[in-house]
Each structure stands twice: as C-alpha cells, then as structure tokens.
C-alpha cells in the first residue's frame, strides 16, 4: 500500500519543492498548484513514470476566480484550470491546478498525453475562452460555433432575460445557416480515398437510433464506417451555470435532470459534496434510505438500457416488458417520494420525508418479483443467438484503452477491471452491504450488456439488505445547515428558529472551500466538484458525468464497423444526452 | 392475340428507343425493363409461356435489378453535359451503322414476308418440351453456353479480385 | 359470355378481398403484438378498436402528399405503385377453391416468381428516387437482399414442382389431395420457402431495407400520405400472398374435411373456408415472428442467404429428384 500523501513529497523531490504549492481542500484530495510551463512534464511523469501511476484523466475543468473572495493559501489567479487525475493502484486522486491571468489565457494542451483530454479542453475553451496550445482541433464543443462569449465566465449572463430580446435578421440567419453547412475538412475528414469516394451520413440530430438529440457524422465507404464525429451540445442547458445562481438547496432538482434516467441517484453526489463542505454527518438511516432508492433507480435505468439496447439491434418485444417492470419501480418511487422519474428527494443532510407506512412490503414484493423476470430476459436477450451475433466482438476496447479514455462504470468493468466506487471508496454506508462486482473480459458490446444485466441482480441484493436492516432514527441530520432544518426544535429556542428562518428563506450558507464527491452512478462515475465562496449559492459547480467521456470514445470504437454495428455500439454505451451535454 | 402481339412489339420498340435517348441512367434502365416485359408478352402470345416467365424472372427481375443496383451504388446521376453524346450524333458516325441496320431490317422483312409465315399464336410450348429440347436436342449447345458463362464468371471474379490489394495499399499509404 | 362474367367476378372478389384483408391485418397485427407484449394495442375506436384502421386511413388520405423537391418525381410516384401492382397481379394465379382463380395458368408458379421478382423494383426505385442517403442505403440493401433470396426461393419451390410434375398451382393442390400434403415430404423446402418469403416481404428478421433503428424508415423515409399508405398496404398484400402460397404449395390448398357436403356452391365455400383458415394461421405466424425475432446485420443476412440457404435449397432439389427417380 502506497501512502496516500507521499505523492506530494515525491513530486517535490523530483521537480523541486518550489514548483508546487499545496492547497488544503475539504475533500482531502491532494491539490497542487503548478506553473503552466511545468504542467506537461508533471502530467507526463504522473501518467507513466510515477510509482502507482495516475493512469486516468478523471476530469479537466476550469474556474473563473475573478470575483472569488475566499482564496486562502492559493496563488493569484484569474482563471484556474483544474486537472483531476485518478490512480487505480493507489486508489487516490490528485488535483493539479494551473493559474492563468486574464490577459494571457493559454496553456499547453495535454491531448498527446491523453487523447481523452480533447473534449475536456474544447469544453474549457468553449466555456471560458482559455486556449490550449497544441490542441489539434480547438473548436467550440457544446455551444454553437457562432456563439459570442464564453458562458461560464462570470460576466456572461445566466438568463435569457439578461441578454436583451432575441432577433434574427436575414443576414444573421444566413450566417447561421452557412455555419451549419457541412464541410468534411472542418471536422478533419477527407472526401475521398484513392479508391473510393466517401459518403457522409448524418446520423441525427433527429434519428430514432440515437436516443436523443445527438448528431453523429459518419464517413462511410459503402456501409463501412471509415470515421465518425459525434457532435454534441444539442441538449446543453447550462446546468453548471445554473448552479451558480441557485441556492445550494434549490439546485437539487436540476441534478435530477442531468442523467434523467437516474432519478435520485443524481442527488446523491451533489448532496454528499455539499455535506462534505458543510461538515454534516448524516444518520445511518438516511444513508440506508439513500442507498435503497439509488439502487432501485439503478435497476430502473438499467431496465431502460436493456430494452432499448435490444430494440436497437432489432428485438422488438423486450422493451415493452422492461418498461412495464420499470413502472413497478416507479410505483414504489411514487409511494416513497411522491414523484416518478425526477423525485428530487434527497436533501442536504437527509431526505425529504421519512419512509411511508408499508414501504417495506411494497419493496419486498418487487424484490421477490423481479429475479424470475431477469432470468426470462436473460434467455430472451442475452442468450439469443442472433443477438450474440450482432454484439459479440463489436465495439470492443481493451482495459488500457478504457482507462486512457476515462471509461468508468459497467464499460470499465466489462474489460475485466473490478473498479467500483461502492467497493473501493464506500460512500453513504455501502461498506455495510454485501454485494459482488460483476465483471466481464472482452470489453465488447455483449460484455457491457452482461455486466449490466448482472448488476441488476446485485442491486436487488442490496435493496433486500436495506429493507431487512433498515436502521431506526431520524431521516435528517441534526445540524444547523441541514436544509430544510428539523422543524421540531424551532419552536423551542430562538437560535434554531433564526437558523430555520434563514435556511428556508435565503438558503443555507455553506462555509468556503472546495470538495469533490464521485459516486458509482447508473452509467459510470458521476461526480460534483463544488467551490463555495461562503455564500448561499455555489461559486462553481462542476459536474463530471460518465456519458461525456464515453461518447468521446465513439469514433475509436466504431471505426471499421458497419452502420448497423454503430447502433449496437451506441446502445451498449448506455448514455443519456443530458448526461453528456448537461 | 394478334393485336396483343403487335401492341407488345410496338411497346418494345418504343421502350428500346427510349432506352438509348434517356439522359438519366435509371430512367433508361427502367425503359429497358419495360422493353423486356414487352418481349415477354410477345413470347407469351406466341405460346412460349415458359420462356415468357423466364424472361421476366431472369432478365427483368434479376439482371436489370443488378443494373439499377450498380447505378445506385456508384450514385450515377444524369451527366452534367451531353457534349460527348452530341459528338456521337454527327452524321459521320451514325451513317454507317444506320445503313447496315436498314439493310438488316430489310432482310428481316423479306424473310418474314417471303417465308409466308404470318404471325399467329403459335403452338403451345410447355415446360417439359423446353426441358427436353434443351437437355436432349440442344444439349451440346447448352453445355457450351454454360461453359462460356462459367468462363465469364471466373473472368469477372478475377477482374474484381485484383482491385482489393490496391485498395489495401491505398488504405495504408 | 358467362365464363367472362365469372372471371370478372373473381377478379373483383380478389381485388376487393385482398384490399380488405390488408387493413384487417394491420388491426390484427397491432392487437396480436400488443397481446404478446403485455400492452393493449388499439382498443378505443369502435368495437375492439376495429375502426382504428379506418381512422388511420382517413388520416393518411388527408395528409399532405409531399414529393420532396430533390426527388426524381416520375420514379418517386411509380415506385409505390409497382409493389401493389405486382403483388395484386400475382394473386391472379392463386386457386382459392377448385376453379376459383382468375387464370388457370400452366406456368402459374413461374408467374408468381416473375411478379415477386418485379416487386424488387418498388423498393429499389423508391430508395433511389427519394434522393436521400438513408433511402438509398435501404434501396441498396433491398436489392442485394432480394436478389440473393429470390434465387433460392425459386430453387426451394422446385421440390414441389418435381413432386407434382407441374407449375400449375391448381394441379399442385390436386396432386396433394391425391397423395399427401407437401409439408411432410418437402419440409425442408417449405422452411426455405417460408424464410425466402419473409425476406421477400421484408418483415422483421429481414426488415433491413427499413430497419428503423438504423435507417429511420429506409427506402420509404421520404414518403408520406397515400404513397406511404401504398407501401404499407403493399407489405400486407405481400404477406397475404406468401401465406396463400404456403397454403397452396405445402398445406393442400383448399383440401380439408367437407362435412358431407359434396357438390355445389356450398362445397366450394367450405373448401374456400379451409383455404382461408390455413392462410390465416400463416398470417399470424408472420406477426409472431415480428414480435420475437432479432434483426441480423446486413452482411450476416446476405451471407446466410448465399452460404446456408442456397446450398440447402440445392440439396433439397437434388434429394427430391433422386428420391423420385428411385421410387419410379
């Protein structure tokens, strides 16, 4: 076991201690400030040469620091680019920050070290206007190419009402239309090879096979895919920007809509991150309730994936069966939370209500009902020979590729790596449950399916344990920042009444600091990196979503496949457009 | 039946004429199909039902589909200009072939008229008769034809095959 | 004169009958699929949702009949007509009961093959004329698929021809009445023909030309209103045709117990009833296939046709021929 903190000492001894400045954070992830000249060297060392290398570029984002007031122990910076690395050997994260001044917004690109940095860097360029030197294709990623301004800068308006009325004069419309014109060269594609002329096929944004507004430009030779470019951003709603103008409590419903199939699973990393900033310790009952609801939503999400994946490769019926059973989960969710797909039910320091009477019977009925159905579907889908012919050996990647591209969740476990946050870094009390981590070996579409199918059984196991061992106690933490606060005490002492009043009217004031919490969500690792400036609103909300990273791999996975394979690959990734675009 | 014969013949002639004058390749191929269907009707009126059916199945239903398939695969539209074709229509080029064709047509008319065999619904030829004549009387001819077709097949395969390594090289380079 | 009138009656009967079977089938398909997929299907308009088809037809009539400006207009209009014309024409040779067919053609089976081979044009031309890449891919897939599957469709039928010694469909039925339904001795041939028939009508495992997950709607992506309706109806006419042929070629056509009725119109009606009942079973089979199958990939499908089905149908032909010679 390599000591958790020795990476700082080690980097210091290798590159000189003056190279780095250490910043303490609430989440205790080692955070180092490094100059942009040294960045590539340090990152390259960390990826390959360091003992227990940091093989995965977990996240790459930026912070507009210009209006931030609480910055103790941090060097002067207008814009900070944050590289978040993950080491599997150490089971440890590392954050590298680069300070940039407003007048000189550029730093070297690391796309040649991690190809997967490409989209992240483009996103940072798009949102902050920071230029990455050496990036081969530095265009906007989420916003339209004709967009003026960089949305996540503090001076960019957050709402349409701050922007003046929208007008579309003819010349602007012509310019916009012209910008939509497809020129293969702009996307790094050739029109023809020596032997044949390529056909460019627009898969989407309106296409029944893409599960949402996603455009994939296919470069075809016959029906064989020579190359493809996913174009994203159609579903971009600026969730990160919204985080900066909603109260800490008021942002919870927005999280539901990130991975809109994951329901309360989205609330969890956000609430955990806020609780980490606020220093709230939730009761065991809260943890168990949260785990139970999350696992139910994991099953619901996997059911949607199961059915639509089957439909993508042409089996018509399973999707109806699976949606019917998903409806049973929603019946439970409705009874417990009052909502269905987006219950927004978790709260800072607890959940919205206690469990209703008779909840255990409802859930036990379901837990007893589903296993037989899972066996039936196993026969109907996974053991179907035509289905196997369509998915085995299609869209495969190796474990190295998966790690390099930042794959997490079932996609990573399908390559044989049993990395699961619930086991490796138990959060919300997962250490109290018995469950296995299903893995597969080949990393193709079929194996990704196998892993998810097996995960549903494990989720059922967890849910059953939750029902059988539900702790007694409060459904909310006894802490001043719990939102909404416990009502009972407010009528007894004035302090609590004032806190309650402030917490409800303005929202809680979360102490300044930075915290990241990642969880094993339905589609991979979903994480919230929150920066608080000691106010009622978040200073910066960064949402690390799994689908974003997985979609970026699509060209790598689909080269040489056919159009039909493409649909199998898309189906096997299990992405949600809102999870990609946020 | 005689009327049907003449109508079908006229359709066949007209369609064939359209084949060579269309600029859009798919339209030309469609007229070719109509022409073949008309010929099938001609066969039918002459009592050769079996031949008529085969004409439709093999020529109209399979070979012309291949034509359309290839046109679609190569995505051939109407040619941007017809200059090349206009050149072909200068008198020097078409006078010779036309004279020969007129001669042939005259010969054909003479044979029909002098032979004294007027066009009528011929005797009915069923599948069995066709089979017997193909595999007994004309057995050698059928076998020879099939050998030539096989040679053509092998040749086409060879021509098609040679492209593949080129393509691979192109892909690598 | 009387004979002409009878023929005209049968023609009217066939066209009207088939054109009414198709909408009925649409309703049946929706209800059956719903039954097998744990849902309701249309059940609001009229008794058992029967008028849903009518409502859909009205909707279809009143939709804008849109021809895209980039389409090849003449061919675009021609394409949906072809499938209906060829499929309906092929019904001319189907014997519904003794003497009940439009023409009693000596090469009836070949005539069916000829018509079904012409049906390819509909899909191919629709794909080409739409001037849309998805349609084009659909059209290309359709022509490659139909070419491959037509070859062994013809070959698989030759077993029946060898056994009965005729291409005449009515005589094939009579031959079965005298010996045995050909589904027994020609079981392999029947399976091959059924598979080829599904491929011909491009229904679910073989619906690659219109694979909705990949090609949106394939060759008919650009079609709307009545032209789309013609493709829609054409598909169901095709299914009906293949089901009729299954009945005629392998399940003894109108053959069945006559309940003591031995002559007159009553006998014919009973025989027709048998024919219709058998056909109905195959129609349901088609729908069940759609509910239960997975769509293979294009190259897998073509390879299946040429590498498995074609050798099998040749083997079937050889074995049938050898067996017949040996028995002679």
Can you offer a commentary on this structure?
- The complex is a heterotrimer of chains A (582), B (173) and C (328).
- Chain A is of the alpha+beta class and 582 residues long.
- Chain A has 2 domains: 7-154, 2-Layer Sandwich (Beta Polymerase, domain 2), CATH 3.30.460; 264-553, Cytochrome-c3 Hydrogenase, chain B, CATH 1.10.645.10.
- Chain A is 39% helix and 15% strand.
- Chain A has a 5-stranded mixed sheet with strand order 1-2-5-4-3.
- The radius of gyration of chain A is 24 Å and the shape is globular.
- With 173 residues, chain B is mainly alpha-helical.
- Chain B has 2 domains: 1-78 and 92-118, NADH-ubiquinone/plastoquinone oxidoreductase chain 6, subunit NuoJ (Four Helix Bundle (Hemerythrin (Met), subunit A), Up-down Bundle), CATH 1.20.120; 126-164.
- Helices cover 83% and strands 0% of the residues of chain B.
- Chain B contains 7 helices and no strands.
- Chain B has helices spanning 2-21, 25-45, 49-74, 83-88, 91-115, 127-137, 139-172.
- In chain B, helix 1 (2-21) runs antiparallel to helix 2 and helix 2 runs antiparallel to helix 3.
- Mean pLDDT of chain B is 74; it is low at 164-173.
- With 328 residues, chain C is mainly alpha-helical.
- Chain C is built from 11 helices and no strands.
- Chain C has one domain (2-327).
- Classes of the chains: A alpha+beta (582), B mainly alpha (173), C mainly alpha (328).
**What's the CATH topology label of the largest domain in chain A?**
Cytochrome-c3 Hydrogenase, chain B
What proportion of the residues of chain A is helical, as a percent range? 25-40%
Question: Kindly, what is the distance between the CA atoms of the first and last residues of chain B, rounded to a whole number of angstroms?
Answer: 64 Å
Going by CATH, the architecture of the largest domain in chain B would be Up-down Bundle
The succession of helices and strands of chain B, N to C, reads HHHHHHH
Rg from Cα of chain A: 24 Å
**Straight-line N-to-C gap of chain A:** 37 Å
Q: What is the percent of helical residues of chain B?
A: over 70%
By CATH, the topology of the largest domain in chain B is Four Helix Bundle (Hemerythrin (Met), subunit A)
**Can you tell me the number of structural domains of chain A?**
2
Shape of chain B: globular
CATH first level of the largest domain in chain B: which class? Mainly Alpha
Mean pLDDT across all amino acids of chain A? 84
Q: Return residue spans of chain A where pLDDT drops below 50 for at least 5 consecutive residues.
A: none
Shape of chain A: globular
Task: Label the structural class of chain B.
Answer: mainly alpha
């Amino acid at each position: 076991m390599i000591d958790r903190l020795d990476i700082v000492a080690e980097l210091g001894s290798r590159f000189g201690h003056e190279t780095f400045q250490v910043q303490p954070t609430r989440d205790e992830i080692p955070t180092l400030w490094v100059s942009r000249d040294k960045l590539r060297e340090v990152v390259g060392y960390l990826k390959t040469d360091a003992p227990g290398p940091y093989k995965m570029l977990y996240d790459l984002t930026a912070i507009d620091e210009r209006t931030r007031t609480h910055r103790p122990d941090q060097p002067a910076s207008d814009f900070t680019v944050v590289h978040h690395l993950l080491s599997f050997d150490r089971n440890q994260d590392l954050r590298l920050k680069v300070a940039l001044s407003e007048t000189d917004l550029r730093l070297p690109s690391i796309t040649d070290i991690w190809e997967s940095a490409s989209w992240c860097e483009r996103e940072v360029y798009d949102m902050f206007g920071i230029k990455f030197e050496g990036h081969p294709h530095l265009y906007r990623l989420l916003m339209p190419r004709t967009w003026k301004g960089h949305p996540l800068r503090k001076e960019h308006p957050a709402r349409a009402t701050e922007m003046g009325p929208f007008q579309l004069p003819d010349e602007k419309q012509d310019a916009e239309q012209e910008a939509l014109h497809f020129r293969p060269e702009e996307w790094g594609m050739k029109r023809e090879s020596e032997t044949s002329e390529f056909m460019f096929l627009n898969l989407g944004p309106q296409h029944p096979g893409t599960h949402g507004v996603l455009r994939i430009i296919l470069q075809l030779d016959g029906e064989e895919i020579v190359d493809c470019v996913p174009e994203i951003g159609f579903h971009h709603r600026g969730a990160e920007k919204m985080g900066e103008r909603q109260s800490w409590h008021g942002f919870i419903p927005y999280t539901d809509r990130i991975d809109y199939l994951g329901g309360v699973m989205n609330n969890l990393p956000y609430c955990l991150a806020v609780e980490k900033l606020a220093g709230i310790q939730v009761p065991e009952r809260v943890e168990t309730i949260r785990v139970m609801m999350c696992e139910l939503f994991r099953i619901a999400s996997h059911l949607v994936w199961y059915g639509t994946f089957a439909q993508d490769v042409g089996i018509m019926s399973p999707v109806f069966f699976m949606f019917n059973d998903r409806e049973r989960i929603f019946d439970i969710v409705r009874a417990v939370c009052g909502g269905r797909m987006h219950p927004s039910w978790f709260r800072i320091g607890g959940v919205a209500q206690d469990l209703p009477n008779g909840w255990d019977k409802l859930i036990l009925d379901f837990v007893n009902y589903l296993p037989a159905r899972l066996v039936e579907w196993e026969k109907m889908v996974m053991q179907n020979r035509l289905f196997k012919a369509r998915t085995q050996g299609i869209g495969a990647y190796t474990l190295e590729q998966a790690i390099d591209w930042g794959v997490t969740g079932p996609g990573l476990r399908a390559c044989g790596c049993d990395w699961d946050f619930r086991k490796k870094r138990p959060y919300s009390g997962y250490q109290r449950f018995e469950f296995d981590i299903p893995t597969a070996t080949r990393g193709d579409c079929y194996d990704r399916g196998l892993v998810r199918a097996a995960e549903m059984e494990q989720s059922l196991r967890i849910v059953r344990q939750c029902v059988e061992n539900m702790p007694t106690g409060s459904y909310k933490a006894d802490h001043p920042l719990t939102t909404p606060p416990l009502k009972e005490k407010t009528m007894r002492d004035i302090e609590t009444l004032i806190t309650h009043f402030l917490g409800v009217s303005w929202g809680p004031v979360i102490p300044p600091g930075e915290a990241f919490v990642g969880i094993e969500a339905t589609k991979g690792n979903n994480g919230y990196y929150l920066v608080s400036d000691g106010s009622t609103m978040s200073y910066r909300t960064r949402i690390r979503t799994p689908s974003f990273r997985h979609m970026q791999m699509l060209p790598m996975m689909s080269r040489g496949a056919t159009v039909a394979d493409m649909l199998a690959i898309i189906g096997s990734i299990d992405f949600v457009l809102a999870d990609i675009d946020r | 039946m005689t009327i049907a014969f003449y109508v079908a013949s006229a359709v066949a002639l007209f369609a064939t004429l359209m084949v060579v004058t269309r600029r859009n390749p798919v339209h030309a191929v469609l007229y070719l199909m109509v022409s073949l269907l008309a010929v099938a009707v001609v066969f039918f009126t002459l009592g050769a039902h079996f031949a008529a059916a085969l004409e439709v199945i093999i020529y109209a239903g399979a070979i012309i589909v291949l034509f359309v398939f290839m046109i679609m695969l190569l995505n051939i539209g109407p040619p941007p200009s017809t200059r090349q074709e206009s050149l072909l229509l200068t008198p020097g080029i078409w006078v010779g072939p036309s004279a020969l064709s007129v001669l042939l047509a005259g010969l054909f008319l003479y044979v029909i008229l002098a032979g004294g065999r007027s066009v009528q619904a011929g005797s009915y030829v069923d599948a069995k008769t066709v089979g017997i004549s193909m595999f007994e009387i004309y057995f050698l001819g059928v076998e020879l034809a099939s050998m030539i077709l096989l040679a053509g097949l092998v040749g086409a395969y060879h021509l098609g095959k040679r492209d593949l390594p080129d393509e691979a090289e192109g892909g690598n380079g | 004169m009387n004979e002409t009138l009878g023929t005209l009656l049968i023609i009217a009967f066939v066209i009207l009958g088939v054109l009414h079977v198709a909408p009925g089938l649409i309703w049946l398909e929706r209800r059956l699929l719903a039954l097998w997929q744990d849902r309701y299907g249309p059940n609001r308009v009229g008794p058992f949702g029967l008028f849903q088809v009518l409502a859909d037809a009205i909707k279809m009539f009143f939709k804008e009949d849109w021809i895209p400006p980039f389409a090849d207009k003449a061919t675009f209009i021609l394409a949906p007509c072809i499938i209906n014309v060829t499929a309906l024409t092929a019904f001319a040779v189907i014997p519904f009961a003794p003497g009940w067919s439009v023409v009693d053609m000596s090469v009836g089976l070949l005539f069916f093959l000829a018509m079904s081979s012409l049906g390819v044009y509909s899909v191919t031309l629709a794909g080409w004329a739409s001037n849309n890449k998805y349609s084009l891919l659909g059209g290309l897939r359709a022509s490659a698929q139909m070419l491959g599957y037509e070859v062994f469709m013809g070959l698989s039928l030759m077993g029946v021809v060898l056994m009965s010694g005729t291409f005449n469909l009515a005589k094939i039925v009579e031959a079965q009445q005298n010996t045995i339904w050909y589904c027994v001795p020609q079981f392999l041939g029947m399976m091959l023909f059924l598979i080829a028939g599904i491929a011909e009508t491009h229904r679910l495992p073989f619906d690659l030309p219109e694979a909705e997950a990949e090609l949106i709607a394939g060759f008919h992506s650009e079609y709307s209103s009545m032209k789309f309706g013609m493709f829609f109806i054409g598909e169901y006419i095709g299914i009906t045709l293949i089901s009729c042929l299954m009945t005629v070629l392998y399940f003894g056509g109108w053959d069945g117990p006559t309940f003591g009725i031995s002559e007159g119109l009553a006998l014919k009606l009973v025989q027709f009833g048998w024919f219709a009942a058998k056909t109905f079973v195959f129609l349901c089979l088609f729908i069940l296939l759609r509910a239960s199958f997975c769509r293979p990939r294009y190259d897998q499908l073509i390879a299946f046709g040429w590498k498995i089905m074609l050798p099998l149908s040749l083997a079937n032909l050889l074995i049938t021929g050898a067996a017949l010679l040996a028995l002679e």
